[in-house]
Design goal:
By secondary structure, this protein is α/β, with parallel strands linked by helices. 34% of the residues lie in helices and 23% in strands.
Length: 298
């Protein structure tokens, strides 16, 4: 089983991007949440580990997990409100966000008991590793599970507006790398962090995958290999959830095989991720494809 840990939230997405005062459509979202849903739709055994609200939005988010086939037994519940992210869409479909996170449920996440022995991979990232006190609990989960040999994926998914001290955050990011098997980040994340894949590999990860938007994906491995694939060409509705779908597609291929990061057919793995991300971009909001949709896409 794959466990995805981190925040869920509601994305408020413009129905008419050209009109900043137009209506906003609520969409189920949050980077880790999207990753869990994408894994469920791909048919992977997956559980979500988070603290979610008992309000109406929280109930809708939990229902979305169950509909996608995601195990919710590791979800903590509380009366705090659901986080909100107001999206602004650019002409190319890329999204920027204004977050409303104060006092919300995910910030009170607590370290759960030892995960089941059947867990083969753990994915974390995004806002959940920024906002305290929950961030320290998620980090403790990362360190504990890495110590017992679980494959770990970290997606920093940088949100500058939520980071009060960039230098402290960058130092903390590096301190987490010895506990990370697979680091996945965007070109924009890499530029903000100010490091290189080679520098990060020396700290512990066995592979670093960099997403390059419309240019595709590149992996750098601890063995010195580098592979790139182009992006799939599709008509883009928006890019919400595309990077989260890449996380899911990578784990879908890699998590079942303990030595996968050393022996992976990386061009095939990256093409699988590129196709899944492209299909996500054809729909409004974070709507990752099902296994059937991925198979049907040429």
């Amino acid at each position: 089983m794959i466990v995805v840990a981190g925040e869920s939230l509601i994305d408020l997405v413009p129905q008419h991007p050209e009109n900043p005062l137009g209506p906003l459509a609520p969409r189920l979202g949050g980077g880790p949440y999207n990753t869990a849903v994408a894994l469920g739709r791909l048919g992977a055994p997956v559980a979500f580990c988070s603290r979610m609200s008992t309000d109406g939005f929280g109930e809708a988010l939990v229902a979305g997990l169950r509909t996608a086939g995601v195990d919710t037994s590791l979800v903590q519940r509380g009366p705090e409100p659901t986080p909100l992210a107001v999206a602004t869409l650019a002409a190319d479909g890329s999204a920027a966000y204004a977050f409303h996170m104060a006092g919300t449920a995910d910030r009170l996440f607590e370290l759960p008991p030892q995960l089941p022995s059947s867990v083969s991979a753990l994915a974390l990232g995004s806002c959940s590793l920024i906002l305290e006190p929950g961030a320290s609990a998620y980090e403790a989960l990362l360190r504990r599970e890495a110590a017992r040999g679980v494959l770990t994926l970290l997606d920093p998914n940088i949100r500058p507006a939520l980071i009060p001290d960039p230098n402290a955050f960058k130092a903390r990011f590096v301190s987490r790398l010895p506990y990370v098997s697979l680091l996945k980040l965007s070109e924009e994340d890499a530029a903000w962090l100010g490091g290189t894949p080679q520098e990060w590999l020396r700290e512990g990860p066995r592979a670093v995958v960099v997403t390059r938007g419309g240019e595709g994906l590149t992996v750098h491995t601890a063995r010195g290999a580098e592979h790139s694939v182009p992006a799939e060409r599709v008509e883009v509705a928006d890019t919400i959830g595309a990077g989260d779908t890449v996380n899911a597609a990578l784990l879908h291929r890699l998590a079942p095989h303990p030595e996968a990061l050393a022996t992976a057919d990386w061009p095939s793995v990256l093409r699988h991720a590129a196709k899944a991300a492209a299909l996500t971009c054809t729909k409004r909001g974070a709507e990752p494809p099902t296994a059937e949709e991925l198979t049907a896409h040429p």
